[in-house]
Specification:
By secondary structure, the protein is mainly α. It contains eight helices and no strands.
């Protein structure tokens, strides 16, 4: 039964990738959410989700960042690093969380996460997830206190 369900999800991936380009932002956001729920089997959607990180709608950008974390592809690291500078705190939160999920593949982000954690003007929930991401990366150079 699990194999059949997995196969049905794979069949839906191309449709969801197309939906990421829909004119309705709710459809785009829902497509990104669904791809995230499919997880690592949705690696073929990574490039389209990276494009969605620049969507005009912040909910779509947040959903895309979250989905990239669930898919956990190191191809998304640079785009997620760029999303750390998004004007919307929700997008920044999900980008950091995605980098945390990618973990060891995200060592290039140590400086950016440390900068966010040390920024006293950043929301506490974002600073918290930044330190959790640094903890997951587990590099002695990450944070020196």
């Amino acid at each position: 039964a699990a194999d059949a369900l997995r196969e049905n999800c794979r069949v839906a991936i191309p449709v969801l990738i197309t939906a990421l380009k829909d004119e309705n932002s709710g459809v785009r956001s829902s497509a990104a959410d669904a791809l995230g729920k499919i997880g690592t089997d949705a690696k073929s959607a990574v490039l389209t989700l990276i494009v969605a990180l620049k969507d005009e709608d912040s909910e779509v950008r947040s959903s895309a960042a979250d989905a990239l974390g669930e898919i956990s592809s190191e191809r998304a690291v640079d785009a997620l690093i760029n999303a750390l500078n998004d004007e919307n705190p929700s997008v920044r939160y999900f980008a950091i969380n995605a980098l945390r999920k990618i973990g060891m593949d995200a060592k290039s982000v140590i400086f950016e996460l440390t900068k966010i954690f040390l920024n006293g003007n950043e929301k506490i929930c974002i600073r918290y997830v930044a330190i959790k991401a640094l903890e997951k990366i587990d590099n002695k150079e990450a944070v020196s206190f």
